[in-house]
Glutathione S-transferase
Amino acid sequence: MPLYKLTYFDLRARGEPIRMMFAIGGIDFEDNRVDWEEWEKLAKSTATPFSALPMIEVDGVKIAQTLAILRYVARETGYAGPDNLTSALADSLADQCANFVMAFMDWHMDALYTSCYLPARAKHLPFFEQALSKSSTGWFANTPDLTHADVFIAGSLEWLLRMDPNAKEFYDGFPLLEAHAMKFFAHPKLQKHLEERPETRY
Ligand SMILES: N[C@@H](CCC(=O)N[C@@H](CS)C(=O)NCC(=O)O)C(=O)O
């Protein structure tokens, strides 16, 4: 088995879905958490492919972009969906969630809660609720066990909920999405990781 090294900040944010995917897939990895001082040095060098984190290194090959990494780990561990079409469905939901992440980052960085975040939430959450309404298993791609779409969406919403001052109202009107989060965080293969992961701001 190759050696896997994940480099990210000491945060959950974009790194945590990858850590959770490794944990669910039963793969050991080096969890390299860099501080801002280390990041400034890395960013100025050619150490990362696109001057951004997360990044994984596998047998000397560096892979950046959260979803590319997540899909890779999902494929390595059998969680990318049982066939191409199901994988594409999971990909499309994860990609849509990445759009939502970009939208809520604008709010987080620039304090645009009302003008940016609330409209983005109103636009995106119904997409995910609707996808779950078509699933008979409670997983986004209607698979017997989860795929990377479930990991990315649940992980991204967990990150967002830790920043949202009105988190208690977040799931109002979205019962399937709330049930999905509970199902995801109760997944048996995730429990050890959840018990052991460090507490971080978000
Ligand atoms: N689309 C990229 C975005 C990566 C990204 O923006 N990463 C942030 C951290 S979440 C980063 O590296 N920020 C440091 C910087 O830009 O200097 C991905 O999903 O991996």
The chain has a mean pLDDT of 95.
